[in-house]
Amino acid sequence: MTERVDDIVEVCLLAGKLMLESGGETYRVEDTMTRIAASFGMPRSHGYVTPTAIIFSVEGTGVLII
Fold this sequence. Notes:
Elements: H1 2-21, H2 26-39, E1 45-50, E2 53-58, E3 64-65
Antiparallel strand pairs: 1-2, 2-3
């Protein structure tokens, strides 16, 4: 189960990174990441995005920064 969560978080972070690098607004990046996580059955995710950092967590599994 932990591997699945890690894979989903990696997908969310990659999507966020690509959006930021392409000039996407930070609120859209946050929204997209939470929607991706929800589509994989993890509705309780939280993200915080600035132009230089992404912080994302899913149901208390930890915080990942890229």
